[in-house]
Amino acid sequence: MSSVQDQTEPRSRRFPRSKRSARTRERILAAATEVFARQGFHGARVADIADQAGIAYGLVYHYFDNKDDILGAIFSERWSQYVAYIDEVGRTQLSFREKMRRLVHFWIEIYRREPDLMTIMINEISRSYEFLESHDIGAVLVAFDAIEAIVRQARDDGEVHANIDPQLATYVVLGAAEMVLTGYVMGTLPRGDPEAYARDEELLLGMLTDGLASRTPSA
Fold first, then answer.
1. What is the pTM of this model?
2. Residue 190, by phi and psi: left (phi above 0), alpha (psi -120 to 50) or beta?
């Protein structure tokens, strides 16, 4: 007999019962990512997602309640992966600059490899008050907490200036990264080759770390 939790849990939160079901669910999410990026969330229909996935329209509803549920699944699953990576970097013994280098590379590399995913993360999630108001804001803020922990540790170690407010610095770091990624998504920062992205990484890294660094870092 199913528990009360099983009965009330949204479809997108349930574990597929078989490998085939898991593949179908991932197929739907991948198709939705392409459709949302191309048509926008409000312009997309569940039928469009089914067509893109090459499955029957009704099958989508076996896994998700509606397209809002699909968008929520894309966010919760990918965002948790992002936060896990930031936490992983934060736990290393690397210098503050090297930690930031890895994060900057991570953010830009995600766009290069998965531009559709980054498009909906920017357009339909991070810049959507409607989405943020209807979802747990705490799930978003854990990324801020992870960056703040990195800055705070660097300040305690003397790598970041003692007068730096870690919380404010976190908003500066994530805000700068988001604006660069927004430029890529909107096409206002056109980049045509890996070297251009690499230059952006170095420039962004320098701006983020040099402004925070202590003038007399500890040995």
1. 0.83
2. beta
17 or 49, greater pLDDT: 49
- Residue 154's closest CA among 201, 64, 217? 217
Q: Say if 6 falls within a structural domain.
A: no
Task: Residue 143: give its domain's CATH number.
Answer: 1.10.357.10
28-35: Cβ within 8 A, 24+ apart: 28/53, 28/55, 28/60, 28/63, 28/64, 28/70, 29/70, 29/73, 29/74, 29/77, 32/67, 32/70, 32/71, 32/74, 33/74, 33/114, 33/116, 33/117, 33/120, 34/116
| Residue of 199 and 15 predicted with greater confidence | 199
Q: Does the residue 135 lie in any domain?
A: yes
Query: Is 93 contained in some domain?
Result: yes
Tokens of 80: 């948790």
